[in-house]
Amino acid sequence: MSAYLFPPPAVAALPVTGQQARFPINRIFCVGRNYAAHAAEMGADVDREAPFYFTKSAAAVMESGGVLAYPPGTRDLHHEIELVVAIGAPAFRLSKARAMEVVWGYGSGLDMTRRDLQARAKAAQRPWDLGKDFEGSAVLSALTPAATFTPRAQRIRLQVNGAARQDARIDEMVWSVPELVADLSHYYHLVPGDLIMTGTPAGVGAVNPGDRLTGSVEGLAPVEVTLGPAD
Q: Which of 29, 72, 148, 169 holds its CA 20 to 30 A away from the CA of 88?
């Protein structure tokens, strides 16, 4: 039995609708600019040659329903509601036709973003890590097995304090779920526990301590979080 210098981190995991067992999380891949209207509101063009990605660590995961302390180092925290895809089987160099075979289920997620830090990184042509990957930056709902949900034209929405901020359809994504899974599998050996946050529609904006965010993808468990004061 291995000995460790200090206790290893607990396994990040999400509840599953209708089941007692939880879904353990390995990696989180995030898709950038996957809705044309969102790309436009950020002053960017959609790259229709290939999707592009950034990542979040498992330490970024917060289960829906909690209180997220306003994160350090930013004065411009933004919400981004997204469809989340959960991988349930090994996948490497899959075709688009076979990509859905490895999808275990789906959820709703919030990609919380330190927009000022992301903008600074973009201006300096540097990675987005400080803007995107921090504790609580991936707020995730319970997962729904793929047997009971098929991505089509379901609405994806977000409200802040009851007021609508984002409202679109998931079939407006530039890159579909099978296209994303197949593409990622040509760069990584995908494994059970990997998640894909598939990008956000237009309407992103700043949130502040005290705000309550409620997001949903029609047919899936909603995602909720309340912003607390800064640490």
A: 169
Which of 10, 181, 214 is CA-nearest to residue 91? 181
Tokens 């180092």 — which residue? 73
Question: Is residue 178 a part of any domain in this protein?
Answer: yes
3-state helix, strand, coil in the chain (%, to 5): 20, 35, 45
Residue 71: which CATH number?
A: 3.90.850.10
Residue 33: CA count within 13 A, CB half-sphere: 14
Range of the domain at 215: 19-228
Q: What is the pLDDT of residues 50-107, one digit of tens each?
A: 999 999 999 999 999 999 999 999 999 999 999 999 999 999 999 999 999 999 999 9
Alpha helices in 107-205 (DSSP H): 115-123, 129-132, 177-184
Per the structure, how many domains does the chain have? Answer: 1
Rounded CA separation 172/11 (Å): 34
The reported pTM is 0.97
**Is 4 among the domain residues?**
no
What is the token pair recorded at 60?
Answer: 């970024």
Q: Is residue 8 part of a domain?
A: no
CB 172 within 8 A of CB 154: no
